[in-house]
Amino acid sequence: MRLPAVVLAAALSLTSFTTVLTGCPGPTFVVQQYTGPQREADTIAILRVNASDTVRLVTLDDENVDVPLESDSRLHIELLPGRHTLSVRSASSSDRLEPLVLQAEAGKVYRVAIGSEARVWEVSRGSDAQMRDVTTK
Most exposed residue of 22, 29, 77, 93, measured as fewest CB within 10 angstroms of its CB? Predict the structure, then answer.
């Protein structure tokens, strides 16, 4: 089961769903995209969305996840390993870019970045530095 946008928006509005990570100036909202109890970190993947980035996540596996975030916050969407389809847009436009596909691996953190085109990157959990392009078609 995928997380409906209404549930995502409600979760983001509740402070009980936030955690502040060391070194991060604002809150990190954690949303579970799978059903059932919370899973161990080494059994799931995280799709990270930084509100200060120039990219906005619009859909994840055909579910609307385009929610406003404060400029100092970020969103962590917990995913099961496997194939996920994303649509994104530039923060300065409402036009969606070409869909992206991610083959998520357990224990990994991912983030979408826009350069000459939108790409999905595996990033360092601690520093958020881009490590490798993992975009698949």
Answer: 22
Helix (H, G, I), strand (E, B) or coil at 1: coil
Residue bearing tokens 């969305």: 49
| Exposure letters 75-104 (e unless 16+ CB within 10 A, then b) | bbbbbbeeebebbbbeeeeeeebeebebeb
What size, in residues, is the chain? 137
> What does each C-alpha distance from 50 to 80, 82, 111 come to in angstroms?
20, 22, 8
pLDDT (tens digit per residue) in 58-68: 999 999 998 88
What is d(CA 122, CA 96) in angstroms, rounded to the nearest whole number?
22
Q: Which helix (H) or strand (E) holds 104?
A: strand 100-104
Q: Bridge partners of 84?
A: 102
Q: Do the beta carbons of residue 95 and residue 50 sit within 8 Å?
A: no
